[in-house]
Give the backbone structure.
Amino acid sequence: MDLPFVVSAPGKVIIFGEHAAVYNKPAIAAALSLRTYLLVTPNEDSELIRLEFPDIHFNKSWRKDHFPWDQKPNYNGKPSLSQELEPELVDALSLFLADITSPFHYSSAYTFLYLYISLVSKTVPGATFSVRSTLPIGAGLGSSASISVCLATAFALLDGHISKPTIGRDERTLSESADCQFIEAWSFQGEKCLHGNPSGIDNAVATHGGAVMFQRKEGSMPSVRTSMRNFPSLRLLLTNTKTARRTATLVANVSTLVTEFAKTSEFILNAIDSLTREAYILMTKPVLDAEARRRLRELIRINHGLLISLGVSHPSLEKIRMTADLLALGETKLTGAGGGGCAITLLKESVEESKVLELVEELENEGFETFETTLGGKGVGATFNPTLDPSEFIKMDRIQIEHNVWSSDWKFW
Ligand SMILES: Nc1ncnc2c1ncn2[C@@H]1O[C@H](COP(=O)(O)OP(=O)(O)O)[C@@H](O)[C@H]1O
Ligand SMILES: C[C@@](O)(CCOP(=O)(O)O)CC(=O)O
Ligand SMILES: [Mg+2]
């Protein structure tokens, strides 16, 4: 595999159904124009593996012959959805990474090594792996899924499990290729390293792009991913509380609640199931008229109320919702795991731009960060032999990455 190359995968916005998705209920999500980029460059010392993760202030080098290769999983092809992480490899890596104390650093290094040892042969020369996100990290926008897809894709390319992508940026095909399925399956293993018990919607959207209704099934039954090809244009304001949190913790807290209040939780999860299905029907109508848009906003409000009941809101999220409610510009819900992170406000179509700017100004005065973003973008892609200087790449800001990296010749699977 000729180096250097860059792979990239999008983040996502879950519009309906987060957390319920973990309990096999449907959820609706769309790819974001904010993405993660992984630059792979050759090392002079082919025994060395170097990580450069400046977004989380983490750099690390290992000699690859020190890796626990004897625990390399031996299943060929892609793991099934019910395939749990290999306990022997998990144990060996927890020993190998014992010197890393930060949970953010640990989970990134653990995911990197779990996927590298699983996918890359010992004989493949070492390289330097530099990761940058234009996504806010730990903010409910699927940064874990986008890095999992980037790692799975880069390693699958390095070891020849998949071919180079061929689909052009402007081609509309939502690829269902075997390579895409391979990437999705292995990035799900990456999400397991990062989330513990993921539904699979985040890495599915990061792999395939577009917008989907996604439903995980029991056991090894394949998930159902329905592409929403005529995704309606929605006026969504994305606001980041900038309150850091870890999805794994929030998902675990909901699991405790579901165990402790099984019957009540079942009603909450079934209510989210019902509203997500109703939203899907509205969003796939040929025309989203004013009445349908009003009902969608109501469903946003109801979904958020149910997420409060699951214990995953946060005072900062409620502050965003209150600010938007006082201006009566639309309805607001948290997106992703909650506990901080981001909220989305589905604005009324009739709202004047000046009113939206007033809301943005108020939110930013309260210390929040708002994003204009487009939904339904491209999934995982790659560009080869980029004229990128790794030392420059790790210092670029969001605009520079989008101008200097995303603007080059990308191909998709
Ligand atoms: N650019 C990045 N560099 C290094 N690690 C990253 C990056 N983006 C995401 N991660 C990993 O993913 C974790 C965030 O995943 P998660 O808690 O699920 O939040 P979210 O998916 O909502 O962004 C981070 O703590 C880090 O371990
Ligand atoms: C809470 C959940 O529904 C979405 C998590 O999204 P994020 O990691 O907060 O971006 C978990 C899942 O579906 O895997
Ligand atoms: Mg995540």
